[in-house]
Design brief:
InterPro entries: IFT81 (IPR029600), IFT81_CH (IPR041146), IFT81_N_sf (IPR043016). One of its GO terms (cellular component) is intraciliary transport particle B. The chain is mostly helical. It contains 19 helices and no strands. It has a domain of 123 residues: Orthogonal Bundle (Actin-binding Protein, T-fimbrin, domain 1), CATH 1.10.418. Helix 1 packs across helix 6. It is flat.
């Protein structure tokens, strides 16, 4: 067991699950969490099972998982009694059941994913034997089995191709053979052209042959259009006959029907539709809206990192711990009244689920009944179209009249009974009103007594339980009646289908022959098409190879043209340089001095002489500057010293003037004091 858990934890921590479990955390998972984990693993194998088990009933979850495990060929250990225990453990989320299943699934995930994919197409749909008696259903079933066999062969070929790969040598041999066939066809066309060219007016004859071919093609298309219009006319006539038959049947139904039966049917239909509109459809819409809201919220949120996931996991653990504490508190503070209410709630939920299931079964039965009625109408229209209306003999007409009289007397007796029942219904309705008023008064008194005694709500709970039990019994009775009616209707339909089958046997025999010939022609057409496709593929391969070769040659031609233009430009440049060199040589060799002066060599020689003279003058100037550099620096230093000396004298002179002005001011102040 420990090794098994170790393998499960290792597989769950890998891709694509990445659960980050250890042995302790995995072993401490709740039953609901184990079921969700098993559902996630099954969803990885088959994406249709990637659902949240909180959004479906436990019975639906167990049924879904058992179906997929049966498809995957999982064999639970033990006998038949152990199988029932296995189902029960799968519903309750038992570790002893789910751990072996997880170990088996996680060890062969890839193999089981392939098996689940193949099961979508290879699990045979079981058709009841009574439906296979119909030739149309039998033909469809045969086509279904043939398509299943074709899928098996194609899948095997696909797997073999994946394993073996393509053989390049065979492809090359096929290409070479196709090239030889192409050459032979080209030679044959050339021979035919030469043979035709010797005939007089061969162009006109070719034009006439082309026009003849076009007219034949047009004739074939017109014949095909004519055939299509005939088939459309035939189908339109059949639809008209069916509509006429339906009209007659509806008229008979309206003439033979009673207002009471019509009202009863309408009331049943209204009740069923009101249940669908008021209870079932709003609940389904609410669940769909909730799922859509959560999906939109999930899409709108940013991508979650590992830190976000860790935070969410910690929050989930905290909420789980709080839930466990609340459950423990509830168990500690357990009261019997709560257990009774929980029992009543459980019974009410079970009854509501059964009610929903019966409503779904009723809706499916109605759909099946409507489809069967359509098939019966179609068979009747075909029978009327083939054999016409039936003519009754004298004895059959007498029997029909006697049956009609007996039905008339029965109708009158039933009508009288209905009138009596209606009168009694009025009396009972008034009695019901009186009893309801008394019941309300008694109920109020009972509630007051319950409030005094401190047990308010006890009578209401008792009534609800009795009402639920009564509804359950009524539903069981309705279910039994519905099943009986359906079985009788199916027997009648089978008898009618058998009669129509006997009348349609010759036509179906001819149709089978035509289908066989059609299959042979289709097979021949497929073979010709395969030959054409192979030839076209070979020619396409040759064409692509030639296109690649032409593309390469064009690129090479463009490169060579570019090289040619570059070489041509270089040639022209060299020619210009050569022409200039010739002119230079001619001017240099010329005896005239004017021509020599225009020569480039003479110009450069003259420039070189001028530069040499300029350099000589600059060198002499540099020599003079070097010789006078020392005395000039000494003289500059003397002038700087002289400038400093003169600056010092100026400052001394300014200070002396300031001191003389201050002494004069002091003397003038002393004189003023003496005067005073």
């Amino acid at each position: 067991m420990g090794d098994q858990m170790q393998v499960i934890v290792e597989k769950l921590n890998q891709e694509p699950f990445r659960k980050n479990y250890n042995l302790i955390s995995f072993d401490s998972l709740e039953p609901l969490q184990l079921l969700q984990l098993l559902s996630d693993v099954l969803g990885e194998i088959d994406p249709k099972h990637a659902v949240d088990i909180r959004e479906e009933l436990p019975e639906q979850t167990a049924k879904r998982m058992l179906n997929l495990l049966g498809i995957l060929k999982y064999k639970p250990p033990g006998t038949v009694s152990d199988l029932s225990a296995f189902r029960q453990g799968l519903v309750t989320g038992s570790k002893a059941v789910i751990h072996p299943v997880l170990h088996w699934l996680l060890q062969r995930t890839n193999e089981l994913r392939t098996r689940a994919y193949l099961a979508r197409f290879l699990v045979k749909l079981e058709v009841p034997a009574e439906f296979l008696q119909d030739d149309t259903v039998a033909d469809f079933n045969k086509q279904y089995e043939e398509l299943m066999g074709a899928f098996k062969t194609l899948h095997k070929e696909h797997e073999q191709l994946k394993i073996s790969g393509l053989s390049t040598a065979e492809i090359r041999r096929d290409i070479s053979a196709m090239e030889e066939e192409k050459d032979q066809l080209a030679k044959r066309v050339e021979r035919l052209k030469k043979r035709v060219e010797t005939v007089q007016n061969h162009q006109r004859m070719l034009e006439i042959a082309r026009q003849l071919r076009l007219e034949k093609e047009r004739e074939e298309s017109l014949a095909q259009q004519k055939q299509e219009q005939k088939s459309q006319l035939f189908h339109t006539e059949q639809r008209l006959q069916r509509a006429q038959v339906q009209l007659k049947e509806m008229q008979h139904m309206v003439a033979d029907s009673k207002p009471e039966s019509l009202m009863k049917k309408l009331e049943e239909e209204i009740n069923f539709n009101s249940y669908l509109v008021n209870e079932k459809i709003p609940r389904e819409m609410e669940s769909k809206k909730t799922s859509v809201y959560f999906l939109q919220k999930l899409v709108a949120e940013p991508a979650m990192t590992q830190a976000d996931l860790t935070a969410l996991e910690s929050e989930i653990e905290e909420v789980t711990a709080q839930m466990n504490q609340l459950i423990e508190k509830r168990i500690i503070t357990y009261e019997p009244t709560d257990s009774k209410f929980s029992m009543y709630r459980q019974q009410a939920s079970i009854i509501s689920r059964k009610k929903e299931a019966k409503a779904e079964e009723l809706q499916a039965a109605k759909e099946e009944m409507s489809s069967l009625e359509k098939q019966v109408e179609q068979k009747n229209s075909q029978a009327h179209g083939l054999g016409g209306s039936e003519v009754l003999t004298e004895d059959e007409f007498k029997q029909y009249v006697s049956r009609l009289r007996s039905k008339n007397t029965l109708y009158k007796r039933r009508r009288q009974e209905v009138a009596e029942i209606t009168a009694e219904y009025g009396i009972l309705q008034r009695t019901e009103e009186l009893l309801r008023q008394r019941h309300q008064a008694t109920q109020q008194q009972l509630q007051a007594i319950e409030e005094k005694k401190g047990i308010s709500g006890y009578s209401y709970t008792q009534e609800e339980l009795e009402r639920v039990s009564a509804v359950k019994s009524e539903m069981d009775e309705v279910k039994g009646q519905t099943l009986d009616n359906m079985s009788e209707m199916v027997k009648k339909l089978n008898a009618m289908v058998a009669e129509k089958k006997a009348s349609l046997a010759p036509v179906i025999k001819e149709l089978r022959q035509l289908r066989q010939s059609c299959q042979e022609l289709t097979q021949e057409c497929d073979e010709k098409k395969m030959q054409y496709d192979s030839c076209a593929a070979g020619l396409e391969t040759n064409r692509s190879a030639l296109e690649q070769e032409v593309k390469g040659l064009l690129e090479e031609c463009a490169q060579e043209e570019s090289n040619y233009r570059y070489i041509n430009c270089m040639k022209r440049s060299l020619e210009v340089q050569l022409q200039r060199a010739k002119e230079e040589m001619k001017a240099y060799v010329s005896p005239e001095p004017q021509e020599r002066r225009r020569a480039v060599r003479e110009q450069y020689t003259r420039i070189i002489l001028e530069q040499e003279n300029l350099g000589k003058k600059l060198r002499e100037k540099q020599k003079v500057v070097r010789e006078s550099h020392g005395p000039n620096m000494k003289q500059m230093k003397m002038w700087q010293d002289f400038e400093k000396l003169m600056e010092c004298k100026r400052e001394c002179f300014l200070k002396q003037q300031n001191q003389a002005a201050i002494g004069q001011i002091i003397q003038e102040g002393g004189k003023d004091r003496l005067v005073l």
